[in-house]
Amino acid sequence: GENVEQHPSTLSVQEGDSAVIKCTYSDSASNYFPWYKQELGKRPQLIIDIRSNVGEKKDQRIAVTLNKTAKHFSLHITETQPEDSAVYFCAATMNSGGSNYKLTFGKGTLLTVNP
Amino acid sequence: NAGVTQTPKFQVLKTGQSMTLQCAQDMNHEYMSWYRQDPGMGLRLIHYSVGAGITDQGEVPNGYNVSRSTTEDFPLRLLSAAPSQTSVYFCASSYPNTGELFFGEGSRLTVL
C-alpha cells in the first residue's frame, strides 16, 4: 500500500516568514495529493490539492509543488500569519475515475507562527 | 446543509463494552469513510464505503465493523472496546468525482 512520509513534525516561524512542509510517497501510481489544515480541536479541512498532471498550483499565499520523478510534494506558505498556526497533513492516493476513497495521510506538521 | 454529523462527540467506555459511532451526511455523497486520529500518527483509514451496500477495509480495520444501508448513514461499531481504541474518530464523505473530503467534527472515545 501507499506510504506517506511528512517532514518536519513541528515548525516554528516568525510572522511574515515563509513555511515549507515536505512529503514523500511510495506508490508511483498515486496521482492525487491534497493538503488538509486542522486547527486545534477542529476538523481537518482541505486547503489545496494537486494532481499528477500539474507541477505547481497556487492559491493566494499557499502553493503546492509536485515532483513525480522523485515522488515528493511540498506545501509552501508565504507571508505567514498567526491564523496559519495549525496542524497540516499531506495525503496521497490513486484517484481512479475521480474516486479518492483510499487517502493515505502523513503524520502531520504542527506549524506555529509567532507574532 | 448540516454537512457531516457525528454522534456522540464524547464517550467513555469500559474494556469489553460495545458501542456505535453514528455518522450521517446530507450532501448525497456516495463515498464515506472512517478515520482515527492518534497523536503523532496522522489520520488512519479504518473502513470506507463507495455506496449503499458496499463497504471495504482500510488500513486499521481490526475491532471495528461498518455497514451502509443508506446513502446518508455510515455507522462504525466497536465490538468489544479495548484501551488501544482510545482515539478521536472522524467520519468523512465526498462526491466520487471530486477530491475533497468533508469531515465531521469528530468523536473522542476513551476506553478504560
Report what the structure shows.
The complex is a heterodimer of chains A (115) and B (112). Chain A is mainly beta. Chain A has no helices and eleven strands. Chain A has strands at residues 4-7, 10-14, 19-25, 32-38, 45-51, 56-59, 62-67, 72-77, 86-92, 104-105, 109-114. Chain B has 112 residues and is mostly beta strands. Chain B is globular. Chain B starts with a strand and ends with a strand. The model of chain B has no long low-confidence stretch (mean pLDDT 94). At the A-B interface, strand 4, strand 5 and strand 10 of A face strand 4 and strand 5 of B.
Give the overall shape of chain A: globular
Strand content range of chain A: over 45%
Overall shape of chain B: it is globular
Spell the H/E element sequence of chain A. Answer: EEEEEEEEEEE
- The percent range for helix content of chain A is under 10%
Q: What order do the SSEs of chain B take from the amino end to the carboxyl end, as H and E?
A: EEEEEEEEEEE
Q: Regions of chain B with pLDDT < 50 over 5+ consecutive residues?
A: none
Q: What is the mean pLDDT of chain A? A: 93
Largest interface: A-B, 28 and 25 residues
Secondary structure tally: strands of chain A = 11
Q: How many runs of DSSP E, i.e. beta strands of chain B?
A: 11
Coarse structural class of chain B: mainly beta
> What is the number of helices of chain A?
0
Overall pLDDT of chain B, averaged?
94
Portion in beta strands of chain B:
over 45%
Question: What oligomeric state is this?
Answer: heterodimer
Radius of gyration of chain A: 14 Å
